[in-house]
Amino acid sequence: MCGRLNVIDDPGVRELCEGLQIQLFPERQIFSRFIRATNQVSIVRQKDGVRRMDNAIWWLLLEPSATGFKPSKYTSFNTRYDKLNVKGSAGYHAYRHSRCVIPAKGFGETEYLNNKPHHYHDLVAKDGAILLGGLCREWINKDTGETALSCSVITLPPHPKLMHIHSKASPLLLPLDMALVNRWLDESITDPSEFEPLLQPYIPYDLIAQQIDKPSTYSAIATPSLINKD
């Protein structure tokens, strides 16, 4: 699920970012129509009490390489909801200490049949933008002292309204409730039990779903459809 993101330089995306009251922008925000897993994506997190936007590798588990860090051989661009409370899992510690959000215009889904791509869809906010709930981790190379930041999107069970698009999972879409978002980003909240209600499939925005030929060209091949919010 959710192997690509649409983060275009859109008024809705910028308005959402402004609403997040980000205090630090150490790096230039990344805008792209097609961000795939292992690419860098701009995330919003709180560190040392400061709300900041940083660029992170969209792959939670990294390993040292000759040039710094690279994605681990273990797939981790998404973190499953049912692994968040499993001690020793990739997202266990991050769920308690380094939650983040990813502002975007939309996301992409690929449905597989017999382990082969069957169809592709892009989904975008009908109005404004969306906010994906995620996790992030900081990495330090013990030999060189170099640092890196990684992230993942939390995935939930499939949503009934999206089953025809992707039948295995759906992304965690956070409502644009700033009190809730503030709690999610609050690094002092290390008991995530209050977030359990969020780990059920939920669509808080109207979405436009468009079937496309393939992610790299994203040419429409069918009439777009409206998926109403819950």
UniProtKB/TrEMBL annotation:
This protein's UniProt keywords: Covalent protein-DNA linkage, DNA damage, DNA-binding, Hydrolase, Lyase, Protease
Family named by the database record: Belongs to the SOS response-associated peptidase family.
Class of this enzyme: hydrolase
Protein's name in the database: Abasic site processing protein
Keyword Ligase part of the UniProt annotation: no
GO BP term, example: protein-DNA covalent cross-linking repair
Cross-referenced Pfam families: SRAP
UniProt-recorded Gene Ontology molecular function terms: lyase activity; peptidase activity; single-stranded DNA binding
Taxonomy, superkingdom: Bacteria
EC number: 3.4.-.-
